[in-house]
Amino acid sequence: ALDHPYSLRAGTTPAELLKKLNEQRDIIALMEVKMKEMKSTIRQLRVTEAELREEVRERDRMLGVQGVRRRGAG
Amino acid sequence: ALDHPYSLRAGTTPAELLKKLNEQRDIIALMEVKMKEMKSTIRQLRVTEAELREEVRERDRMLGVQGVRRRGAG
Questions:
Q1: Looking at the domain assignment, is residue A74 inside a domain?
Q2: Which domain, by its residues, includes B50?
Q3: How far apart, in Å, are the Cα atoms of B44 and each of A23, A56, A64, B26, B51?
């Protein structure tokens, strides 16, 4: 459901279409770089989250939060 | 420094250029949606990170990590 697709207007030359095409291509290339950066940021934040959760668990153990019933073995 | 920009080849019609232009436009629209999602994910992960850091600090306080010298007032 994309509105306003490009359409041929009177006076639109192939050279103009080509210029626009290359502009779009550059935009896509920049967006790809940006997305790659964001993916890397997300990956790093997930690693940090896992580490912090482990730190919290570790401190909980140190605090002897043992009122919690251990149901399973181990 | 982008390689292979589009160029006019013999037989490339304005209709073909237009088709390509609209294809790229759709790609850009999809990428924008994806980037918006990733931005939202990053924002959420940063909130979670801040919360977890606070949890760690809180437990450190509970553990009485007071060997740390307090230099400032407060």
A1: no
A2: 33-59
A3: 33, 19, 30, 27, 11
Supply φ then ψ for residue A63, to 5 degrees. Answer: -75, -5
Residue B74 C-alpha, separation from nearest chain A C-alpha, in angstroms:
25
B37 falls within a domain: yes
Partner residue facing B21 (CB), from A24, A29, A34 = A24
Q: What is the dihedral of CA A7, A8, A9, A12, to 10 degrees?
A: 130
| B67, part of any domain | no
Number of domains in chain A: 1
ipTM: 0.73
Helices B14-62, A14-62: crossing angle, 10 deg rounding: 20
Nearest CB among B15, B27, B63 relative to A28 is that of B27
What are A27-41's pLDDT values in tens digits?
999 999 999 999 999
Evaluate whether residue B46 is within a structural domain.
yes
For residue A22, give the 3-state DSSP assignment: helix
**CA–CA dist A13, A4 (Å, integer):** 19
